[in-house]
Design a protein that fits this description.
- The complex is a heterotrimer.
- By secondary structure, chain A is an all-alpha fold.
- Chain A contains 11 helices and no strands.
- The longest helix of chain A is centred in the N-terminal third of the chain and has 48 residues.
- Helix content of chain B is about 35%, strand content about 15%.
- In chain B, helix 3 links the parallel strand 1 and strand 2.
- Chain B is globular and about 65 Å long.
- Chain C has one domain: MetI-like (MetI-like fold, Orthogonal Bundle).
- In chain C, helix 12 runs antiparallel to helix 13.
- The chains are: A mainly alpha, B alpha/beta, C mainly alpha.
- Chains in contact: A-B, A-C, B-C.
Amino acid sequence: MMRQAGRLTYQRRKVMNKVWLTATVLAAAATVLALVFILGYVIANGARALNLDFFSKLPKPVGETGGGMANAIVGTLIMLGLASAIALPIGVLTGVYLSEYGGGRFNAVIRFVADTMAGVPSIVVGMFAYLVVVLPMGHFSSLAGGIALAVIMIPIVTRGTEEILRVVPDSLREAALALGVNRWRVIVSVVIPTAAPGLITSFMLAIARASGETAPLLFTSLGSQFWSMSLDQPTASIPVQIFSYAIAPYDDWHRQAWAGALTLVAMVAVLTLVARLAFRGFKVQR
Amino acid sequence: MPVLVTRFRQLRLARMCAVVTVVTALLLTSCGGSGPSSPNPSTPPLPTATSSQGATPAASTMPVTTTRSLNLTAAGATFPFVLYSKWVSEYNKLNPGIKISYNSIGSGGGKQQFSAQTVDFGASDSVMTDEELAGAKGRAVLQLPATLGAVVLTYHLPGIGKGLRLDPQTITDIVFGRVTKWNDPKIKALNPDLNLPNLDIAFVYRSDGSGTNNIFTDYLSAISAEWKGKVGAGTSVKWPVGIGAKGNEGVAGQVKQLPGSLGYVELAYAVQNKLGYAFIKNKAGNYIEPSFDSVSEAAAGAVIPDDFRAKIVDAAGSGSYPISSFTWLLVYKDNPNSARAQEIARFLWWGVHQGQAFCKDLYYAPLPTSLVQNEEQAILALTSSGQPLFQGGRQ
Amino acid sequence: MRLTAPETEPASTRARRHSLGRGNITDQAFKGLTLLVALSVLALAGLLVFELTKGSMLSIRTFGFGFLSSQHWDPVHQEFGVLPLVFGTLVTSLIAVILAVPISIGIAIFLTEVCPLPLRRPISFLVDLLAAIPSIVYGLWGLVVLVPWIRVTMGPSVQKPLGWFPLFGGPIYGIGVLAAGLILAIMIVPIISAVSREVISSVPQAQKEGMLALGATRWETVWKVVLPFVRTGLVGAVILGLGRALGETMAVTMVIGNRHEIVASLFSPSATMASTIANEFTEATYKLYISSLIEVALVLMILTLMVNILARTLVWRFTAKVKGERTL
């Protein structure tokens, strides 16, 4: 009797085990399915909508079909370029300071602030850029948009740089110093090149993140129907254009919104894949 | 040390990537930094006047020049966006160097950005109140009517196109949430021939600062003392019921997607997207189809003051469409930057003359000719640092 | 997300690295340069807080604490109260967290305990890929796919049995609180699951093996040993996801319906702090309006900051425990 009762409980435990573990499999499956569904939708609709015009033509007047997002693509690239030019040096140098120099308490403060800035909602960053760039300048501009994106990228690059540099073993530094190399040379010529793959990775991830940001661009770069190459003019950008088109009733605009979405996802995917795969296995032994 | 040796290939790749990234960033930034950003200081001499004031529209043709080059930014109402986007495109074809970027962010945004002087000129379907004018940093503002349009009540009812009849009382009940279904007896009574479905009325209003909102709430305040007292008119009000959407585009988009929805948009948006819109009972008691004719009739009886601030909602006249309005372009009467001032004035001149030819095709009403003459005076009176913009009083 | 506590290296290593090669002028110059840049980051953060506070002053002086408690967001009558916006923000984020937590932790357990080794990297890569999709694309997808689905399929089938309950009542527009909550849930799953995975994989093998040796099933090991062990870290992960949901703007703006009101039903439209700023900032036509919107941004920033700091503290405490420095 007792043995039977014991066996029943054991069966029950085995069943519960199977049930719960299957539940976790289902959770993972559901998530992967959701991803495939969403991405599949974007790819299907986007591919259907893409044509050469999309990449080469300007938008048409409201209500007319055709045209493209060429100016938005260029605008996005310009602002990303500007944001990178600002965020890369600042982020890397700050990361270098945190990893190689400085005192415990002070470093903790900077680290804390950098981490905190990463959590600021991007709409707040956009408002900040409006207040400190657009208003003093007197007009909207891609400069303001680029600065807003840079503010978003700086914490990511800083954190990434610091963590990657930390992983480089001290033995490398000591070896270089033992050879008589100056401290700063050690950092620039030994530590950073060793860490370069990881640095590039974190940098590409930061760009990928910034490329999809819409909210900061709403009140900084505003938008434009024309080519806009100059930094002190407003410019169209892919995410903002997608937003305007998506909420509108025009079917042609919806089609272009999907094409834009696919372009964005492709940009992010390429950046992320290159970052992860090209530098796969980058591990420096401690 | 073995770490470095085995990762050599990766390092080379990394270095190459770094170089490419940095070079690309620099290239993009530098190419972004150049380009026409400042007005050409040596503008060519303007053609001298051939006749004085009172020139008819046909006589003021625009010379096609390729030497003038300037980027102007404008922002504002979504109501005339369909027309303005056509205007800037056509104007650019005539004057390839002049690029006017019109950003459709709502009349509230237009007034705000114009006052903050972050754009060259603004656009709004609601006139700037005295308080808003005071906020324009003390500079005198010219509000120039550009065209007229109709705010239509558009809906998404399967099988029902334009022509649903609505009267002021029913409209008031709908916006207050007292009439909630399409097959309510009150609506049925006005439309005995239509097969109204048993759908909830999903009212869609403007969530952003909107001149269209202002026009519609002006109308509501005119037809309903209750509305005037409880909610009032403005670019942004507290709607008793409904869901919010951004811009004329957003409201039209929402209506197109949601069966049973009812929103207020400019006529062009309804027609271009094949949405049904209502015929509304006007002051004279007739059910009027919104069109450029019924809008023009609404304006016909209006007395337009010198500062062009006129409202034409709920107008008298047997064929007047009750929710009509002007829409204005906002410019500073004196603009210290003379090159920009000139280009803006040229564009305005073109707009009130040649631009009017594009109105009807896009479902806007052209300006009455008598008004155009007054507007010509106003444009010619624009100055830069006190100096008149054009020699001889004409372009 | 920094998982390791700020000072995980032994103090001796850190001290040695930082004191290597005290040097000449160029060294000092380089060090000074990096210090300057690091300080500029601090200055940037300070400027951010300063500008937001300065911009809010008018609104703070006009409304005081009433801003936080008033239910009215009425630009015409110049009354601004942030409560409906906070409500909308919290409710959508809460829905997102409730939906995302079981799934994320399920994924984390799957990837650390159940999944065959060769599949682990690809599947975790796929899950992380969800985080890489820009939020505007989520918004577009939500508007075109999710909203009609709620309006046509999900809403009516829920309302038939449960429509009497206020939570499920009212007209179904498709857009609204539920749509926003669902999209946010999908967006925060990768974040919660990534952090959960890290904390779960740091459970010492000995603990798990001990349990298994006693005859526990794998699930019982997870439920009775692993999860309690990582409890602090998991809570940190969840709160981190919450922080992300609170600040999300674009996807929410497109599907929430923009109604500044405290609502009872999942199917009603609502508004969040972020969506209100996105919709109204460029159009605020008078000073008090602008100032109120800046104050909304300030409130949002403080809220997300507090949540993020709480999250990081919890995760840090967890990793400190793992290293044996703490017991709780």
